[in-house]
Amino acid sequence: MIAAFSNLSKDVKQYMLVTFNYWNFTITDGALRMLVVLHFHQLGYSPLEIALLFLFYEFFGVVTNLIGGWFGAKVGLNRTMNIGLAMQVIALVMLAIPTAYLTVAWVMLAQAMSGIAKDLNKMSAKSAIKTLVPSDQQGALYKWIAILTGSKNALKGTGFFLGGLLLAALGFQGSVLVMAAVLAIVFCMSLLWLEKDLGKAKNKIKFSQIFSKSESINILSAARMFLFGARDVWFVVALPIYLGQVFGWDHVMVGGFLATWVIAYGVVQGFAPRLTGKAKGVVPDGRAALGWAALLAVITAIIALGVQFHWQPELTIIVGLLIFGAVFAVNSSLHSYLIVSYAKDDGVSLDVGFYYMANAMGRLIGTILSGWMYQEYGLAACLWVSFVFLAITTVISIRLPAHPKMQAAL
């Protein structure tokens, strides 16, 4: 196996290393989110209080994506990825103290560290692919972005399940220590093998360049913000608590169901190129993003109606969530391809970082609204806000550039 790895090309080896880092980080990120939601709900925290625990996680994700793209272009994506891995280890160790000392301020500080780490890692991974795929092979770029994004979400789902399972088996402190130990090993491997200066800009990058001057990237970023706000407004806090409170599911069932959803979501993302035209020899553009956003808005409205009028609520939520997840996965994969395609070749992480800043802003808005709307008005209200956000995404997507059908080079 080692001999086979050594025979691979340099770019393939680097892609595999980047993906391996990203995968391991993603599992711990998904597990930690589920651990925090379930553990602190068990301790008696309200939905809004739990949402506030993620406030710094999401806020610093916004800051990190905005500055991290500039930082990655300046020092290299290998360094930003390794810094992210190290910071996640520190964040996990911070949460391993006895429960009596886990104050809201301390947890928010650890979550801030984790938020910075996560977005450094994600920005580095997705920007790195742009540097490893020739610019004239857009079909190949779409395929590799879809594989990375889809596998990431499948593993994040595994992390959700792992979080519920670890909480039941090892408790909160034991769980975070185990994850910190695994990620520390990954960090050491990355330091040894990840190529130096990966993705480092050839030209001098000014700090003022962190704000994108590309109209297409600005429009796509706005659409992305509302797209992810629409998901998180009902998925992050409201749904896990609803499944436990209303359906009476235990931690393992909640974690297992959400894990299944995210894994299926990731699988669909991996197949997104075939669903959006690559099988016919073309790659998608803004028109495809518009159509899939509109479809997702309609699906969300149907689910909201079912929940509001109590029509088979368990069936509506389970089946509706699976359909929502499949269509959302295609939307997300399309966006992930379009941003890397639109981004400049030199200093790619600047454009990708700005775009994921908008992504993080959407998650921040969605997370806070998820706790507050659910606590005050219930799950149906969260779903209606999701529908409004998706309607806005659809309107914004009208302005995404349409290009002549490009050959999907393999």
What does this structure look like?
There is one protein chain. The chain starts with a helix and ends in a 13-residue tail after the last helix. The C terminus is likely disordered. 79% of the residues lie in helices and 0% in strands. It is an all-alpha fold and 410 residues long. The chain contains 14 helices and no strands.
> How big is the Rg?
20 Å
Shape: globular
Order of helices and strands: HHHHHHHHHHHHHH
Structure class:
mainly alpha
Beta-strand content estimate: under 5%
Main sheet specs: none
Let me know the average pLDDT.
80
Identify low-pLDDT runs. 404-410
Approximate helicity band: over 70%
By DSSP, the count of extended strands is: 0
Give the end-to-end Cα distance, rounded to a whole number of Å. Answer: 26 Å
Number of helices: 14
Keywords:
single chain, 410 residues, mainly alpha, 0% strand, disordered C terminus
Describe the structure concisely for a colleague.
The chain is an all-alpha fold and 410 residues long.
How does the SSE layout of this entry go?
Elements (H helix, E strand, L loop, with lengths): L1 H5 L3 H33 L4 H7 L1 H21 L1 H18 L9 H29 L5 H56 L21 H21 L2 H8 L5 H25 L10 H23 L4 H30 L5 H30 L1 H19 L13
Helix pairs in contact: 2-3, 2-5, 2-6, 2-7, 3-13, 4-5, 4-6, 4-13, 5-6, 5-7, 6-13, 7-10, 7-12, 8-12, 8-13, 8-14, 10-12, 11-12, 11-14, 13-14
